[in-house]
């Protein structure tokens, strides 16, 4: 019973490098979200996908792109990483009444 | 827009003390309300929820009542344990199953000492 699987768990990038964070869920949920968590800031929504084939910006979308590849997978891409993107990234899959199931997180450091 | 405001932390308690973490919200429509907990090094997990006014959510000794008149959803526990040390997030969701966004408060750090 995997739930929400995020990869990788840790990553160090140099400024300007690109990478894709992967997220997959096996609960047949329509909605999937990407958040970043910074100390003292709580969770901030980057992008979300209400259903397969749709994506929308959240509070802090600049510097990121997303792809909802199919119902299971929702990836987050950093095209040119910046130190300000050092954070912990969480993917979440949302059930009908709004209960969110979170992945374990990706700890990203940009140097 | 929707917003959630939690009491500022961190909160430090001794074991067996009473816990209250305040949460108030602003929302259009009739939101569902949630408390999530995050243990060190882990993702968030649902602690309890309430989907309509006057509902009480409860789990693991924690309780919260959906108060529409005061737009509040305060988290309480009668006797905390060291294992309750974590970050607690209040959240709300409005809209339908396909397009309602989940909005989180800023989180409250709870530390319980033996």
Cα Rg of chain A: 13 Å
Query: How would you characterize the largest beta sheet of chain B?
Result: 6 strands, mixed
Global shape of chain A = globular
Oligomer: heterodimer
Average pLDDT level of chain B? 91
- How many beta-strand runs of chain B? 12
Alpha-beta classification of chain B: mainly beta
Q: How many strands of chain A?
A: 11
What would you call the structural class of chain A?
Answer: mainly beta
What is the mean pLDDT of chain A?
Answer: 93
Over all CA atoms, what is the radius of gyration of chain B? 14 Å
Give the overall form of chain B.
Answer: globular
N-C termini distance of chain B: 41 Å
Pick out the low-confidence regions of chain A.
Answer: none
Largest sheet of chain A: 7 strands, mixed
Number of helices of chain B: 0
Element-by-element helix/strand order of chain B = EEEEEEEEEEEE
Run of helices and strands of chain A: EEEEEEEEEEE
Task: Indicate the topology.
The complex is a heterodimer of chains A (111) and B (114).
Chain A: E1 4-7, E2 10-13, E3 19-25, E4 31-38, E5 42-49, E6 56-57, E7 64-68, E8 74-78, E9 87-94, E10 100-102, E11 106-110
Parallel strand pairs in A: 2-11
Antiparallel strand pairs in A: 1-3, 3-8, 4-5, 4-9, 5-6, 7-8, 9-10, 9-11
Chain B: E1 3-6, E2 11-14, E3 19-21, E4 23-26, E5 32-38, E6 45-50, E7 56-59, E8 62-65, E9 75-77, E10 86-93, E11 102-104, E12 108-113
Parallel strand pairs in B: 2-12
Antiparallel strand pairs in B: 1-4, 3-9, 5-6, 5-10, 7-8, 8-9, 10-11, 10-12
């Amino acid at each position: 019973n995997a739930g929400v699987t995020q990869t990788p768990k840790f990553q160090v990038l140099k400024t300007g490098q690109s990478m894709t964070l992967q997220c997959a869920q096996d609960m047949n949920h329509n909605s999937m979200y990407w958040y970043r968590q910074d100390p003292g800031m709580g969770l901030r929504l980057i992008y979300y996908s209400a259903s397969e084939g749709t994506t929308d910006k959240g509070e802090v979308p600049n510097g990121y792109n997303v792809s909802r590849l199919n119902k299971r997978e929702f990836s987050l891409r950093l095209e040119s990483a910046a130190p300000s993107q050092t954070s912990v990234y969480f993917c979440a899959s949302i059930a009908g009444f709004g209960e969110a199931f979170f992945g374990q997180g990706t700890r990203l450091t940009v140097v | 827009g929707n917003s959630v405001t939690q009491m500022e932390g961190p909160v430090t308690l001794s074991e067996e003390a009473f816990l209250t973490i305040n949460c108030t919200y602003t929302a259009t429509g009739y939101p569902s309300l949630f408390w999530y907990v995050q243990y060190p090094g882990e993702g968030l997990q649902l602690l309890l929820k309430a989907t309509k006014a006057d509902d009480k959510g409860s789990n693991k000794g924690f309780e919260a009542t959906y108060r529409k008149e005061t737009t509040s959803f305060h988290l309480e526990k009668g006797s905390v344990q060291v294992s309750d040390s974590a970050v607690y997030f209040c959240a709300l969701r409005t809209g339908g199953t396909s397009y309602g966004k989940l909005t989180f408060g800023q989180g409250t750090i709870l530390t319980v000492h033996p």
